[in-house]
Specification:
The chain contains 14 helices and 2 strands. It is mainly α. It has a domain of 202 residues: Orthogonal Bundle (MetI-like fold), CATH 1.10.3720.
Length: 325
């Protein structure tokens, strides 16, 4: 009696896998070639330097090349991490890094969203493009250029702020030796430089919305505020959540240029400008202690990864469609 079922030969499925791979490669090879420079860049500047993470568990001494030092260094386990948290600077740099980033996350979502909502209502194409360009240009400025712009405002002798204070009868302020001003200056500079990026992201998403939603709401008599709260913001929620997850993942990182170059490396401002990234730089430059700085960078990376996974897990529990993965 003949059976209509075919019996799969051993290895038949595995033989098809290479064919599928080469078929997919031939189909997508232009895209793979386009992504190759970025992949090579990531491998050289992101993955190869990760080998230095072993220094966090060693007592580093320079003996020959870097790899020779790694092979001959004394392994100390978690002693570098214990030493780090015994130091008086640990609490300061972690507090500054986290608190500044919390402020940056809030302002980095709210302010660009407000600008995007305002520009979305401008019906003149010329004015819309003009305002977008003006707000986006600071994002491309080098931090050294930003530093000089800030210095032009805050310089004690000829800065615009001090000149205005002097003309109004007030005393000049040496902002670069008085730390109480910088918790306001640094978020202001950060939002001025970065507002254009997230604004463009929000605008790009809003331009893809179905206009029928707004037309139907206008027929029903909805006000502009109701359209924003009932249509625009709910449609933007996935984008907001993704940006929030990425921002929370970087809460232990700080913009080195913002916290080091903009205050011009002033030692008197350390209580409000010393963050993890500047601490690592100063530790390597002044003390030459690569082990402690590697331990700080290791903690920074592990906490960032844990925050991304935790935030995404919470989002998946609340709204699965809005999660990144």
């Amino acid at each position: 009696m003949n059976s209509s079922k075919t019996i799969a030969m051993p290895g038949a499925g595995s033989a098809k896998k290479p064919k599928r791979f080469w078929r997919a490669f031939k189909k997508n090879w232009p895209l793979l070639m386009m992504s190759m420079p970025g992949a090579v860049y990531m491998f050289i500047f992101s993955y190869i330097p990760m080998t230095a993470i072993v220094l966090a568990f060693q007592r580093h001494t320079v003996t020959g090349t870097f790899f020779q030092s790694v092979l001959t260094n004394e392994w100390v386990g978690f002693s570098n991490f214990e030493m780090l948290f015994r130091m008086g600077d640990a609490q300061l740099i972690i507090r500054n890094t986290v608190l500044y980033n919390v402020v940056f996350i809030i302002l980095g979502l709210v302010v660009p969203l407000l600008f995007a909502l305002a520009l979305y209502e401008i019906h003149s194409r010329f004015l819309s493009k003009l305002f977008q360009s003006v707000l986006f240009v600071p994002f491309f400025l080098s931090m050294m250029v930003v530093t000089n712009i800030v210095f032009a405002f805050l310089n004690t002798r000829s800065g615009m702020v001090n000149e205005t204070l002097y003309r109004w009868g007030f005393d000049r302020i040496n902002f670069y030796v008085e730390p109480q001003w910088w918790p306001f200056f640094l978020p202001l500079v950060n939002i001025w430089r970065g507002v254009g990026y997230n604004m463009i992201v929000f605008l790009a998403a809003m331009c893809g919305f179905d206009k029928a939603y707004y037309e139907a709401s206008m027929i029903d008599g909805a006000s502009k505020w109701q359209q924003i709260t009932k249509i625009t913001l709910p449609l933007l929620r996935p984008i907001i959540v993704i940006l929030l997850i990425l921002a929370v993942g970087g809460i232990m990182r700080a913009d080195f240029g913002l916290f080091y170059h903009v205050p011009r490396g002033s030692g008197l401002l350390f209580p409000v400008t010393q963050v993890i990234d500047t601490y690592i730089f100063r530790g390597m430059r002044n003390m030459g202690d690569f082990s402690i700085t590697a331990a700080v960078a290791f903690i920074q990376s592990v906490v960032g990864l844990a925050l991304v996974l935790t935030t995404n897990f919470v989002v998946r529990k609340i709204d699965r469609d809005s999660a990144m993965f």
